[in-house]
Write a structure and sequence with these properties.
Length: 574
């Protein structure tokens, strides 16, 4: 096949066109520049791996002028918007959308594209209406995708692009395959809102479809630019949102609109940048350094998720922990009030290299992370004594509730590692809705039907033991390390609450201290896990060095659990 392109095209451009066309026509393609007699680039289509189809016999027939005209139209569409906008992308460190798809799916990973000719007959040149949709193979699994082309009207959305987006979502509902949203959009085209804004099948249907897809298939969104207003809802509806440093932003309104409405003068990054959403709103699950890192993060993330709706996550080759389980008891301090890093315990339990934390900068008192135990994906909900003693604050409770809910939706077993003084008290946390958000965490734990294992690592006081799937919350096991304690409150608070008046009556300071110590030891005996095990409140006390083996056996045994909720439409808490 011979193709002639405009004078001035570079050799690299000719080569790219030849390669792309060869993939489509499965034939040799020679690209000529201007009036040149010799081709600037020639490509042959690669043989399809594993194909058993015989090569058709050659004949004198070939592409007609009609087909060649179509290829020229396709070539023009795939160039995207004006060159000046591509140059701006380069200045911002961003890829052109079709180069982005190459990064994500490779040379052969893009299966097909839908709606390439959307708005082909428009008065303005609007290639693909600024939004690409289709299907691809990503990390060995089939996915649906959408991607904004920022060179076309700043990636904005209008009637034809909206139609493509909706069709992609509706097909994902039918196929059960995951969805990737590669977002770089300024929002809806205000000057073209008739026909797509308020319609039954308009932009509002995006979020209806997001809601229908929620819990059926994983929805993963990566932000590559400032996504404002309607465009900002897709990231927050997605199950997992990845933002890119100094590039991504999302907000209900632009800084200019904020200034007009409120008088506040603020830049885009402070208003809705990656740092703000990672640390304060919790809307960013992960923050990437650049485009390549964003892809790497998503590649890791999907390895813990099912390939398809109603399937279980895939197992991997088991690996020993990065650190020896023999050191667990040394990591956990004897004193219940001494800080330590819970990841030091996790590193001695999970497969080496499998720890994958989400929202690490938000609600730091609780760790939410994926990992593997003997190759099996698990979701970890762990108190973090190294941050505010592991007390549960509102943000941490909300973070945990949402993570538990997602793990349950995608059949990922849950491991709770409890070491908390309970929910935080005080006027500020009440204003921040500690009761409301704590309720959501307890509800999520109560309603999860995946296998749950609760480990009382050290202290589990107050309603903290409830939120962390203690004995009353239908875990498959509640096990404890010898350092464990379960109580309404810690010894110091209990003695102060019960014996304060009697202790105040002791005038001698030494005698008072001795009596406090006696009361403390008596209380400790009552809440020690040996008492709990003796009364069969918990299932077992395990030697810390065997914790990995214990969890491996319990998760394997309960892998095919059949647990139902009461017959009802749904709960009212989340």
């Amino acid at each position: 096949m011979k193709v002639r392109i405009a004078e001035g095209a570079t050799e690299d451009e000719a080569s790219a066109i030849a390669s792309a066309l060869a993939q489509h026509v499965r034939d040799e393609v020679a690209v000529y520049v201007g009036d040149a007699d010799e081709p600037a680039a020639t490509w042959s289509a690669p043989a399809t791996a594993g194909s058993t189809t015989e090569t058709p016999a050659e004949d004198d027939l070939g592409p007609t002028e009609r087909e060649e005209a179509l290829w020229e139209e396709i070539e023009d569409i795939e160039l995207g918007g004006p060159e000046k906008y591509k140059e701006r992308l380069e200045e911002q460190g961003k890829l052109f959308v079709r180069d982005r798809l190459d990064l994500w799916f490779g040379e052969d990973g893009l299966k097909f594209e839908d709606g390439k000719f959307a708005n082909f007959d428009a008065d303005d040149r609007l290639p693909a209406d600024g939004l690409l949709t289709g299907a691809a193979e990503f990390e060995g699994r089939d996915v649906h995708f959408m991607a904004n082309d920022f060179t076309v009207k700043a990636g904005s959305m209008a009637e034809k692009g909206v139609e493509k987006f909706l069709r992609m979502q509706q097909r994902a509902l039918q196929s059960g395959n995951p969805v990737l949203y590669l977002m770089d959009s300024s929002g809806g085209r205000i000057d073209q809102q008739t026909g797509f804004f308020a319609n039954r099948e308009g932009i509002g249907k995006y979020y209806y479809n997001h809601s229908m897809l929620s819990g059926r298939v994983p929805q993963i969104c990566v932000l590559y630019g400032p996504c404002i207003a309607g465009a900002a809802y897709t990231p927050v509806f997605a199950d997992f949102t990845i933002m890119v440093e100094e590039m991504s932003a999302m907000a209900i309104a632009s800084p200019r609109m904020v200034q007009m409405v409120t008088g506040e003068d603020i830049d885009m990054q402070d208003l809705g940048g990656a740092g703000m959403h990672a640390e304060h709103s919790g809307s960013a699950d992960l923050v990437a350094r650049d485009e390549e890192h964003a892809r790497e993060l998503v590649a890791d993330l999907v390895s813990y998720l099912p390939d398809k709706a109603h399937e279980k996550p895939p197992k991997s080759e088991p690996k020993a922990p990065a650190k020896s389980p023999e050191g667990i008891d040394s990591v956990v301090p004897q004193s219940p009030n001494k800080a330590y890093d819970m990841t030091d315990v996790i590193d001695r339990v999970v497969d080496a290299g499998s720890y994958f934390e989400l929202r690490p900068e938000f609600g730091k008192e609780i760790i939410t992370a994926f990992a593997r135990i003997d190759g099996r994906p698990v979701g970890i909900v762990a108190n973090q004594p190294d941050h505010r003693s592991g007390a549960i604050f509102p943000d941490a409770a909300e973070k945990a509730a949402e993570f538990i809910w997602k793990c349950d939706a995608f059949e990922i077993p849950l491991l709770y590692l409890a070491d908390t003084p309970g929910f935080m008290a005080g006027s500020q946390v009440e204003k921040d809705a500690i009761l409301e958000k704590g309720k959501k965490m307890i509800y999520a734990t109560s309603s999860a039907t995946v296998p749950k294992q609760c480990v009382v690592v050290r202290k589990a006081y107050g309603a903290g033991i409830y939120a962390m799937s203690g004995p009353a919350y239908d875990p498959q096991s509640t096990i404890a390390l010898p350092s464990g304690e379960i109580a309404i409150m810690g010894p110091e608070a209990a003695i102060n609450a019960v014996y304060a008046r009697k202790l105040d009556q002791i005038d001698d300071e030494e005698e008072r201290k001795q009596r406090e110590q006696e009361l403390r030891e008596e209380y400790r005996e009552d809440i020690d896990v040996h008492r709990m095990a003796s009364e069969t409140v918990i299932d077992e006390i395990v030697p810390p060095s065997t914790l990995r083996d214990e969890l491996e056996a319990r998760f394997e045994f309960y892998a095919d659990l059949d647990k139902d909720l009461p017959d009802k439409k749904h709960g009212t808490i989340l």
